[in-house]
Design brief:
This protein is an alpha/beta fold. The protein has a single domain, classed as Vaccinia Virus protein VP39 (Rossmann fold). It is built from six helices and nine strands, in the order αββααβαβαββαβββ. α4 links the parallel β3 and β4. α1 packs across α5 and α3 packs parallel to α4. The radius of gyration is 16 Å and the shape is globular.
Length: about 220
């Protein structure tokens, strides 16, 4: 864990995302070589693509929505899936969630979440196991930020989210309108102009929405 901690701190700077001035996160700066490495170079370091180091537009929008509408999570048990930096999970905790589970299979992301939670004086229960398919009753609200960037992942995640919705869970998705976010069965509840990163995106600004599942039967 010490090496992961050093990797996070040495390659980031503590800054506030544009839409979330209430918090600070360890985020990438464009002059840091780590974020210009290819997959082979990252594999040689024993790490994956550092998605955890960016304040993705969909996550910022979802975090902003929670802070503006705290009743969505206040007093409830929350799961942040694909949590990355922990940005959305931290927003849920700041909004008064009873318990927040932040799940990401990347162990470096887990350490980034721990450091970010500590910096924002909140507690997160951090999981590095794959939770897709879990209907654990220990979460009542499921938060999904920026995971519809890959068809394979989208095809795995969406049926699970539909199952959770049928079980009565609240499912909220933050996304800037990526190709694999299906329009059918989604209802947009908020929209934000969110600054993102040109390092990992094709633009520095995205219009990101917060979506919820709706019954289309």
């Amino acid at each position: 864990m010490r090496s992961y901690s050093s990797l996070v701190v040495d390659n980031t700077r503590a800054v506030s995302p544009r839409l979330l001035p209430e918090m600070k996160l360890y985020l990438a700066q464009d002059d840091v070589p780590l974020y210009r490495m290819g997959e082979d170079e990252l594999d040689a370091l024993g790490i994956g693509t550092p998605y955890w180091a960016f304040a993705w537009a969909g996550g910022q929008a979802l975090g902003r929505y929670l802070l503006d509408n705290p009743s969505v999570v206040r007093g409830r048990k929350v799961l942040d899936f694909g949590a990355g930096s922990g940005m959305v999970a931290i927003a849920a905790a700041l909004a008064g969630a009873f318990d927040v589970i932040a799940a990401d299979i990347d162990p470096v992301a887990a350490e980034a979440m721990r450091l970010n939670a500590e910096m924002n004086d909140v507690h997160l229960d951090i999981l590095t196991e794959d939770v897709i398919g879990s209907t654990d009753p220990n979460f009542e609200v499921v938060l999904i930020g920026d995971v519809f960037y890959d068809k394979g992942l989208a095809d795995l995640v969406l049926p699970w989210l539909r199952e959770l919705e049928v079980l009565g869970r609240t499912v909220l998705i933050g996304d800037p309108g990526r190709f694999y976010l299906p329009s059918m069965g989604m209802e947009r509840v908020a929209r934000y102009a969110s600054e993102t990163t040109g390092l990992m995106e094709d633009t520095d600004l995205r219009n990101a929405g917060v979506w919820r599942l709706r019954d289309v039967a």
